[in-house]
């Protein structure tokens, strides 16, 4: 009789323990999501303000990376260090980016399907360019159009507010997963802001410079699993080209020189 009671009590204890563990897991995931939203919101607001307050139709020919991009990388580096203290991936992590390090060598790449190869000095050998379809639609539909029809414009505008943010899909208690979610939130904000602005030739070229500067550093925060970064950055440049009145791209070699000088 006493043995049966002990077994029953043990079963109840295990059941309670499982329920408590499940509850703690839910709370931990909620706290993690809150941290990601908080950090992502801070970075996104800084980026949004820099885009909304700039006159993209009367900007000068780009000679530098905008300072907000450097600030974003600096802040992400600090976030990476914070998260690394609690969560570190099993696989070997990529070295933290150094803003003073060599920027690396690049080749032109359009219609990207995967991340570029890593160079010996830690840089990336990829130049992010608009998709060819974006330039084709810009040319066929007229300057600054997205296809030449009101229906397409309404569709693009609706897309900004109807897209579901897959920020927390497959969220894990790992550094790469956390940083990936923050970067996704940042880049999706970038894309939404771009879709609501109109650009001159030099405005488009400034975005090209900024995007390629970001790409050189963002991959290191996600241990080279940068396919989503490449895709989002390419979409940002493509959207900018479609919103440009005079879509003339900056040459890849010039982009490299500017980014190396920063």
TrEMBL record:
Entry similarity comment: Belongs to the VPS51 family.
Main localization of the protein described in the UniProt heading: Golgi
Keyword Transport: yes
Functional summary from the UniProt entry: Acts as component of the GARP complex that is involved in retrograde transport from early and late endosomes to the trans-Golgi network (TGN).
Keywords for the protein's UniProt record, in alphabetical order: Golgi apparatus, Lipid transport, Protein transport, Transport
The protein's name in its UniProt record: Vacuolar protein sorting-associated protein 51 homolog
Keyword Repressor: no
InterPro entries: Vps51
Single GO biological process annotation from the record: Golgi vesicle transport
GO terms under cellular component: cytosol; EARP complex; GARP complex; membrane
Subunit structure, interactors included: Component of the Golgi-associated retrograde protein (GARP) complex.
Annotated localization: Golgi apparatus, trans-Golgi network
């Amino acid at each position: 009789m006493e043995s049966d009671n002990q077994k029953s009590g043990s079963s109840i204890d295990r059941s309670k323990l499982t329920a408590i563990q499940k509850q703690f897991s839910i709370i931990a995931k909620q706290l993690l999501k809150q941290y990601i939203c908080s950090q992502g919101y801070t970075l996104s607001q800084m980026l949004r303000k820099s885009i909304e307050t700039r006159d993209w139709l009367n900007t000068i020919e780009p000679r530098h990376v905008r300072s907000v991009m450097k600030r974003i990388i600096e802040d992400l580096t600090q976030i990476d260090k914070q998260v690394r203290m609690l969560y570190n991936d099993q696989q070997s992590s990529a070295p933290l980016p150094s803003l003073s390090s060599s920027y690396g060598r690049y080749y032109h790449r359009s219609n990207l399907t995967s991340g570029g190869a890593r160079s010996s000095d830690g840089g990336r050998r990829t130049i992010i360019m608009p998709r060819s379809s974006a330039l084709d639609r810009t040319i066929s539909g007229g300057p600054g159009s997205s296809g030449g029809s009101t229906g397409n414009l309404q569709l693009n505008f609706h897309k900004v507010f109807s897209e579901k943010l897959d920020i927390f899909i497959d969220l894990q208690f790992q550094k790469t997963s956390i940083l990936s979610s923050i970067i996704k939130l940042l880049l999706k904000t970038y894309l939404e802001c771009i879709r609501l602005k109109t650009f001159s030739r030099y405005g488009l070229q400034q975005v090209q410079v900024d995007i390629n500067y970001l790409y050189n550093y963002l991959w290191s925060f996600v241990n080279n699993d940068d396919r989503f970064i490449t895709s989002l950055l390419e979409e940002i440049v493509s959207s900018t080209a479609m919103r440009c009145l005079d879509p003339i791209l900056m040459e890849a070699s010039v982009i490299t020189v500017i980014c190396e000088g920063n």
